[in-house]
Design a protein that fits this description.
Strands 1, 2, 3, 4, 5, 6, 7, 8, 9, 10, 11, 12 and 13 form a 13-stranded mixed beta sheet that branches. It is built from 10 helices and 13 strands. β8 (about 230-240) and β9 form a beta hairpin. The chain starts with 14 loop residues before the first helix and ends in a 14-residue tail after the last helix. The chain has 2 domains: about 55-230 and about 340-365, 3-Layer(aba) Sandwich (Rossmann fold), CATH 3.40.50; about 235-340, Rossmann fold. By secondary structure, it is of the alpha/beta class. α4 packs across α9 (about 315-320).
């Protein structure tokens, strides 16, 4: 589906090309609208898991800070004593088989699991992560195999096939609505009226300048009544590539560094380092989820050293894909980030209420009289 693809730079398209693609893309938009309508009118029905499902997704392509939020939610629920499982498709992986991370088996490499699932698995060693396209089948598998309490559905806003008990929409404060145009002319995965499906909105990168009044105005115009939470990302640690030994953050500012990444919005990462005071002398940007090769790394090292860099710096998402390469003795540091909230208590309360509400419905169903006067039983045991 088109909404799973990275954003396309259309600025260089000629007017004739844009005109030629206008009709096909309008057909795509019609298809998106029809699909949403089929679910909204109950012509199509989402499948539901027994345990609560908390979905985290976005309405635009490119980095919005969704994955750090998935980590935040899964970590919090686990700390609260809930057996939490993350369901994710694993974008960019080269395998179609179901993969389970943190279930006792040796972790596969990123080509089997995907870069973001493998990164999450390292950050959340006590959380099982089930990777695969069929999130419902994988959820049923996890319920039977692990007896989990709650699911966190990664990148689930458009995955209407699976029902959810809390639908969290992530918006980037600096570009919340993707120019108001669907792919590829804009960054929207679906029309703006889809915003009203959100049960909660998390606005990320609010430590940057943005028009809060306009953002809230668009949400209101789209009839979004869900609570809105404001968040930002903190750089909380640095470690050495490969060994993962912690390093002092001062190494980012005491020597000239080269920065490389394969992200939806690499400038955000670079700006974060610059705001920290990093001495950036070289940057290299690869496409989101890029599969690095040895040739890429050799060229990267040569370019960075030619620019005067004595260290390379990258993200945890990139680290899982490059740690097996030879950097020719040039040290590489990996930056760790964490999501922070202005109203952390409000979001945590919403998460816990969702779980309690779903459990209440489940147990009421079990205790309700079945036909013939018998008490309904759980046929999933």
């Amino acid at each position: 589906m088109l909404w799973t693809l990275p954003a396309i730079n259309v600025d260089r398209w000629s007017p004739s090309l844009r005109a030629a693609l206008y009709a096909p893309l309008k057909l795509y938009e019609l298809g998106v609208r029809l699909r949403i309508a089929l679910y909204e009118t109950a012509y199509l029905h989402p499948k539901r898991l027994t345990k609560p499902v908390i979905s985290v997704g976005n309405i635009t392509v490119g980095g919005t800070g969704k994955t750090p939020l998935v980590e935040y939610i899964a970590r919090y629920l686990t700390d609260e004593g809930h057996e939490t499982v993350i369901l994710t498709r694993g974008y960019g992986r080269r395998s179609t088989a179901r993969v389970v991370l943190n279930a006792g088996q040796p972790a596969p490499d990123w080509t089997a699991a995907g870069d973001e699932p493998l990164m999450l698995a390292r950050r959340l060693p006590d959380v099982k992560i089930v990777v695969g396209a069929d999130r419902y089948a994988n959820g049923r598998f996890a319920e039977a195999a692990y007896g989990c309490d709650v699911f966190v559905l990664d990148d689930g806003f458009q995955h209407l096939q699976l029902g959810r008990d809390l639908n969290i929409l992530v918006l980037d404060a600096t570009d919340p609505f993707g120019d108001g145009e669907l792919l590829p002319f804009g960054r929207l995965r679906e029309p703006l009226y889809a915003l009203r499906r959100a049960d909660a909105v998390v606005v990320t990168r609010t430590d940057r300048a943005f028009d809060q009044e306009q953002l809230l105005g668009v949400l209101s115009a789209c009839e979004v009544t869900a609570p809105v939470f404001f968040a930002y990302h903190d750089l909380v640690g640095v470690h050495e590539l490969g060994t993962r030994r912690p390093q002092a953050q001062r190494i980012l500012v005491t020597q000239p560094i080269g920065v490389f990444s394969a992200l939806g919005k690499p400038t955000v990462f670079e700006d974060d380092l610059a705001n920290l005071g990093a001495n950036i002398v070289f940057t290299k940007r690869f496409p989101d989820h890029y599969p690095y090769t040895a040739t890429d790394i050799t060229a990267l090292v040569a370019e960075a050293q030619a620019a005067g860099a004595t260290r390379l710096v990258t993200t945890e998402k990139d680290a899982v894909k490059v740690e097996g390469f030879d950097f020719g003795g040039l040290p590489v540091s990996v930056v760790e980030i964490k999501t922070q909230f202005e109203d952390e208590v409000g979001l945590k309360s919403l998460l816990l209420r969702t779980i309690v509400r779903k459990k209440g419905k489940y147990y009421r169903k079990l205790s309700s009289p079945a036909p013939g006067g018998a008490v309904a039983s759980d046929d999933r045991r």
